[in-house]
Request: fold
Amino acid sequence: MVVVEAYDLTKIYASRAGKHVVVALEGLTMAVPQGEVYGLLGPDGAGKSTFFRTLFGLVKPNAGECYLNGLQPSNPRSRGNIGFLPEKPQFPGHLTARQLLNLAGQLYEMKGSDIEKRTELLLEQFDLNRWPDLKIKHFSKGLIQKVGVAQALITDPDVLILDEPFDGLDERNKTELTKAIDKIRSEAKTIVMSSHHRSNVEHLADRIGIIKKGKILRTIDIAAIREEKCMYEIEAKIGHVVFEIPEAVGKKIRVSTNNMIVELTRPEMINMVIDEMRLKGVSIKSVKPMKTKLEQSLYQDIEGPEDEPVSIGNYVPGGKVTA
Amino acid sequence: MKGIFTETIIEFIDRKQHWLFLLVTAIASAIIYFAVSDKLELVKNEISSQASLLQAASSSLNNFVTVIVMLSVVSIMFLIPRISRKGRVEFYLSKPITRTKFFYGKVISLFAIYCTMILLCGMLVAGVLHYLKALTFSGSAYIVVIGLASFLVWFSIISFTGFMTKSVSISFAAFGSLWMMQLFLKHRSEWGIEQKFVQLILDTFYYILPKTSEMSSISIQLATGGMTVSYLPIFTSLLLAGMLFYASMSAFGRRDF
Reply:
């Protein structure tokens, strides 16, 4: 079953005089089946938030259609079993986390006892119990994002839509939020999340849709990237030392006196290669993972065609432009 | 609906506005107590008439209710743009409620909370006047109830400007200018304008715009047992309020967030 779908969705913002026109969505088409984690990846202004707002009926499209759980946004029941974290949320600042979760539960028309149970569980899960009386207006950015995800989960929804959930978070909060999303993912829920940083979505998503100028440019199966063999570039004083890499570990792609590129069967095999090189007395300067062709194309779609990378075989060293 | 109402009450208490209402009421009660006591002495000494005492008591309560209504209107002016602010409205409208339900939930909650404050404050001051035997219960009730109707009219105006423009300053300007205009238009017949066309324009504005000043006069007339010529200012003002709430809802329903 498809839970999130959009067909030729177009949204144009125009000033009243019609002098300033911004095409936020231009024929966007996509579909997310039940149980999938879908990452919407694109630069700022690509149309990610407008797309989510259209799904929730906050923005009315100029053309096209979209559905949540098979229902149009004009039907409030379409939002019945869906949790949403908006971009840069501004929750009522005068409420505490508990009061916000209670309010969210009431807006979903949950039973009082169910609201209490879920609120307790989510406050515990997101470690929000430590500030029971603190009002949201005094929350840090990290805490706001946490309470935002918590309120989206109040009904234990089957579908979770997160607009830039990692935006503005420090590394510690990012890690915590990633763990929380990973846990939700393990419950076989559908998650649609957006980001302008690929690192935020690529290790969580099953598929990534690249959005730019209001269109989905391409959809990438992350599993395919994961299945591609991992490559490393090792910078070392190799000289004329000869190495043999067992077939079960991987193979050499290119060797020079101060550089070697290896293709390994699994990422952890790099330790065996390093051990072997040390045994041979080779001084290692650096070990860098290399981007695959798929990764590079993904990167290129987001950053634009300005930086043309130079490929070495199927791979680009370190994802850096070396031309 | 219950959730929206609870959230609105929490916001009202968080902004500590109830203390401001109580402070204004306490000061007004003290001033009215001493002013009416003096008038009462004059009546006892037969220097002043009972009718002038009733007039003074009615006017005092009416002026107080007008101040409380203005205070409520200014207070709500700051709340409405916050409700429809991008980011905050998304929290509500991403839940399975309609825009109509959210809009009327908020409007009714705000109206109920501020009406309660106006009613409580009005009853406190009316209690003082009743204690002094200067004004009857029914007299006070006319003034407070018509005061609530005036509040509804101004609330509709600032709801309209607030939801349409999300600007406190525009709401304030609209409130101030309409308040002044109603005072001018009330006396338009005294200006000696003879051109029919200008008279027609002024009459049109008079009938369209709020007439809370005249509503106050009607409430004093009713409280003092005087004759009321016409209830038209009340009906037309309430009609305007209804139309503005409908227009606000329509604009809110169509807006992109």
The interface with chain A takes residues 2-4, 6-7, 10-11, 14-15, 85-98, 254, 256-257 of chain B (CB under 8 Å). Residues 2-254 of chain B form one domain. The radius of gyration of chain B is 20 Å.
